[in-house]
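Hey team,

Sharing the Glycosyltransferase family 4 protein run so nobody has to redo it. Sequence (351 residues) first:
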Amino acid sequence: MRIAQIAPLFEAVPPKLYGGTERVVSSLTEELVAMGHDVTLFASGDSVTGAKLAAMRAQALRLDPSVKDWVAHYYKMVEQVAQRAAEFDVIHSHIDYFPLGLLQRQGTPFLTTLHGRLDLPEFKMIYETYGDTPFVSISDHQRLPIPSLNWVGTVLHGMPKDRLKPQAVDQHYFAFLGRVSPEKGLDKAIRIAARAGVKLKVAAKVDSADRAYFEREIEPLLSQGHVEFVGEISDSQKPDFLSQAHALLFPIDWPEPFGLVMIEAMACGTPVIAFRRGSVPEVMDDGLTGFIVDNEDEAVAAVSRIPSLDRQQVRARFDERFTARRMAEDYVGIYEMLAMGGKTQLRAVGA
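Structure output:
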């Protein structure tokens, strides 16, 4: 098939450091190419891909301090995609509501994967404006705020099976990976590790929007002897970082749409202790890939149960459920359905 992938412009594809959606788009794009499809990736020019790269600007937005209005760059990209729409059998967007008006007015089948939270009133308003267009969720839980949309499938994320592998190392600490923000629960992770008597290593990004929160709430906690803040890390650093962890702590306090760090940990054979929020029960197998808990007390209690888990089985479950090939095959099924004019409802895959 001739497939267009529309990626966010904030990070390169794949991102050099933090970047969940861009990392998923990269995994999907490269796997589609490996499967023999003709893929064009609309992304920033510093992206690296085996697909045809349609460079929308030279550099990812986050790395370019000269950018004053990022929305303008998105609208330029959307217009260029619309002008080339006839070149493709299907157009797959990963940039929320920006292209919906143009895409629904042209003849090429298209779909939008929604990668973020949907529980804000403005999101319900805007997405219901385009309620007949095809949407894909990344977990069933993500759909709950707007169940009436034209959901054509739920596709759980995946990534290349060889990107992250378990390392033959001893375990020395708990890991926290991702982004520092109130909903990600780093303060809770610090308290859980302290109560368990285990060191916590934090590999996390601090966005400018969360800088004040970091300085006010988190930075004072970093002086505690059991906490080491290492900052953002690359994919090449993750296997050692995660393999040396007894567990990844994921004490989130929001309706997590997916949580890519959970499957990154699983790929390294590292169990996850996660709060029962959002997608967590769909991604994790409680008692196999880690433990699902409801509060800090339960998280501390789960620490003593970590030795009962088999790290080889954690990795095996990743191989069964969360590879890029599985994700790409699931999307191709939706592409083919849309290309034939179908509107069937698909259930969550990867289960």
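The chain has a mean pLDDT of 94.

Ping me if you want the raw files.
A.
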